[in-house]
Amino acid sequence: MAQIIPVAPFDCVVFGGTGDLAVRKLLPALYHRYKDGQIPADARILAISRKPLTAESFGNFVDEKVSPYLEPGELASEVWARFRQKLSYVAVDGQGEAGWPELQAALAAPADRVRVFYLATAPRLYGGVSHRLRQQGLIDGRSRVVIEKPIGHDLESARRINDEVGDVFTESQIYRIDHYLGKETVQNLMALRFANSLFEPLWNSMRIDHVQITVAETVGLEGRADYYNTSGALRDMVQNHMLQLLCLTAMEPPQALSADAVRDEKLKILRALVPLETEGANGSVVRGQYRAGAINGSAVKSYAEELGPDRSSRTETFVALRLAIANWRWAGVPFFLRTGKRLARKTSEIVIQFKPVPHSMFPSSAGRLAANRLVVRLQPDEGITLRLMTKEPGPGGLRLRSVPLDLSFAEAFSGRFPEAYERLLMDVVRGNATLFMRRDEVETAWAFLDPALQAWDRGSEQPKPYVAGSWGPAAATALIEREGRTWHEELD
């Protein structure tokens, strides 16, 4: 495992400190970094919310809510007890005046350190909280702010949020987080491409037939009905996670592994995307909504039933897209993206489908030649698989078969793998913005998707139905098969 390098003492102030993100991801991530010795003893972690909690009631709340996200027995460990002592709580009204003097007093000393403000709140509060932090004199040149998606629901609202936060913090102080970029396998995508001479000469339209990116979930709304019904799959997953994966897959080699060098190359890909065709038989977007079905043998309700009685919706729970990149490297190579809820299994992967050999010298009795395929698995079972043609052993004639060369992270590297938020939080403290989105990336992504969203709003067409537990609507299969390609799960 990589060497653990401690960071300098810092303050981490989590607004929304009693919310779902804080208890599921942020506090467990900070605990594991503390447990591994990366967070120094004099670092401070403050949770902020409007709830009138005492120190004791907050401690009990943390024990109860964080416990499911820790290993069995960790709650009773000495390390957890020490970590708990580092946590403090201040009740602050993010939209009003209450509690701000108490927060100012809690952060009064020491002042000469990195101060991270994590806004795990509704995006509509980002601007107001930022301005109040400035009014209280809590921001200096070493301060940083972390903001979560969704950064707006379209280009106009994204610009408004960026303007409001940017009025207080400089661009170099703003960390727009996308936890997918903190996953080990995603970071390994750059290592795979740019640290190996084997792949980069093949990473172009001369050798690659097409690319697939899939982020599939088996869960439904999971208590997020109000948010998701105003968002949908395109805003929730494509605008951020999936376009970022596309950029890392398709971008040119950066001049260096620095924040702006990497983000400059990603921005070029976003700007080179060919506008989407949203209408007609040859449209490049398919949206769907799940109906009742079964997943892993258990019956599940339809999206409309999960929303509740007397509620109907045109919100898409599935979207598939055919994208094209107008540059020399990728001219003629389609990129197929799909994401959805209540699909057949949980998986996130990038599939690089190479072109077949131009001519087969083998007899037809040897079997069909399958083109080489590189699969980068983001979750679960993180790893990389390269499928190659090989001869089956034994006498009796030549038989060819496609077999995988597997790199499983769990087998190749021992020990526990840090979660994405662990890496990203420490990068904020260190001031490394490489894995965070820049303002122009966010707004260019919205500018690309806005026409599709506006077309859906103007039209009357309903999302295409698909059965829960399937791989989405039939139109998504037609989207890729009309070009003679097939989704990955159907290839093997």
Written account of the structure:
The structure is a single chain. The longest helix is centred in the C-terminal third of the chain and has 20 residues, at 439-458. The chain has helices at 20-35, 55-66, 78-86, 100-106, 126-135, 155-166, 184-194, 225-229, 232-250, 259-272, 303-307, 409-412, 420-430, 439-458, 474-481, and strands spanning 10-15, 44-49, 87-91, 114-119, 143-147, 174-176, 208-216, 285-291, 293-295, 298-300, 318-323, 335-340, 347-354, 373-379, 383-391, 400-408, 464-467. α1 crosses α13 (420-430) and α6 (155-166) packs antiparallel against α14. With 492 residues, the protein is α/β, with parallel strands linked by helices. It has a 9-stranded mixed β-sheet with strand order 16-15-14-13-7-12-11-8-17, sandwiched between helices. The chain has a 6-stranded parallel β-sheet with strand order 3-2-1-4-5-6. A two-stranded antiparallel sheet has the order 9-10. The chain has 2 domains: 10-148, NAD(P)-binding Rossmann-like Domain (Rossmann fold), CATH 3.40.50.720; 181-259 and 285-415 and 467-490, Dihydrodipicolinate Reductase, domain 2 (2-Layer Sandwich). It starts with 9 loop residues before the first strand and ends in an 11-residue tail after the last helix. It contains 15 helices and 17 strands. α1 links the parallel β1 and β2 (44-49). The model has no long low-confidence stretch (mean pLDDT 91).
